[in-house]
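Justification of resources, computational component.

The compute hours requested in this renewal are based largely on the per-chain cost of generating structure records like the one below. Each record pairs the submitted sequence with a full structure-token output. That output is archived, and it is also reused by downstream analysis tasks.
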Amino acid sequence: MKTKKRSNKLTIGEIVAYSLGSLGREFSNNCINAFFLVYLCIYQGLNPMVLTVAFVLAKLWDAFNDPMLATLVNNTKKSRFGRYRPWVLAGAIVNAVVIVAMFSPVSFDSVALRYVYYLGAYVLWGMSFTVLDVPFWTMLPTIADTTDDRNKASSMAKLVGGFGGFLVGMLGTSFILPMFASQGMMKAYQYLGMATGLVLIVFLLATVLFVREKIDLPHENVSLKYILSTFKENDQLRAYAGSLIFFLTGTTIALNQILYLYTYCYEDGADYLPKAFSYTLFWVIACTGQGIAMMFYSWIVKKLPREKIYGMSFLACIVSYILLFAVFFFLKPGNGDMKIYWLNTVLVALSGAFLMTASGLNQIGSTVMIADIVDYGEWKTGKRGDSVMFSVQTLILKFASAIASLILGIGITVSGLPTVTDLPVIDAETGAVANVQLFTDENDKYLVKDETVYKNLSEMDGVGEENLVKVAEDESIISKDGLTVLRAFMFLTPIPLTIVGYVIYNKKYWLYGEKYDKIKAEIDAKRKEEETEE
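The structure output for this chain reads:
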């Protein structure tokens, strides 16, 4: 009796389940990136400069321990649940618990102990995220054997993951934090951490339960020595890593500083269109562009070679940096004119959409490329080391993030930006409480333009007129020179970085087209030959 051979073709259900796992992991990643520093600075009273330096060091440590954790994952024996899914589940559970701990207030009287607690939790979060992230992406060659299937799975995973990153920002700023603010903002942030942990576990469970590691690939244990030799022997891995580091550093700088520009450059229109709404609108339009690019990636790659799309993503980012620089450098203050303010908002968002579209195409292309580089490594050295190879992507992301944070910190320091504080302002007549974002100078005095806010603050206990600096309505809270440095530094820095990344890719990377097809055919033929001999 003939037995029906189980198909290795990737099903729609598996693509959906894999993509939902990506949503969960991005929910965790973006929650920490968007909210943790704000929580520590404003609600735990920790020094932002100390935290910036500590975060950079933590990210660098995290980047260098990724290969060690990847080696542990790679050397694990395959169980009946697969080699990678148990790690994904274990990492998700630990990561969820750590997130709740990160947003939980502690009662240490010592400031030093608070630094130790929160920075220790941050390092643990990064390590547990690696434990779920590396095997999640390493699964790709075991669930999709063809380049077409890998394109479909990675593009949908990146699309849904990007939506998860956007969703956590919307959920936090528009629902959870406002909903529980009456219980205190520290309690509200704790609820945000709990919601994030729950989403992380639920959606990664979809991947663990419904995605099958069905392609049995050659596997050998690897050592840390092998990791170093892999970089030495695999020229395509070096080219990939070099180009991606420069690309991601540039995009991280550009995207992270958008919040600063909205905070400091949109001051004149704040009374007519809230900054929070403008910032949300920016991300809605920008993420729509990224979503479209990811959704139609499989169709686009049939019209244009994948290597050309990837190269174009570098060039498109450079164009978007120039557009964003021009828009923010020549912004006209709203001065009460809603048309000008809306025009500013839409122009910035469309420029951001161009950047996010290019970034989305690059993300999908880079994920498929690392799968191809794994195949190339097997062809050249006889070893795959899947987890180690895929950990390079996480390592690059964290290393680029650390460099970008350092550059941003320098830019903010040089710009001389005043600190932003979220202060509950009590109306002396009605007793109503409203959280108001206020700037503070180097002496920790509040800089206030609005007459009503100034009056209410001056009558509040613990504030008083002696802690206020009145700013005329026609004056800017940040100097024109500071704004010029902020705008120029943030956008002009990514351009040379991206150019260097493109040159490395264009000159050094060749693993595509007929050359890759030939290598893949030789690998498949060798596997069949070994199976026949056995």
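Strands lie at 419-426, 433-440, 446-448, 468-470. The first strand starts at residue 419 and ends at 426.
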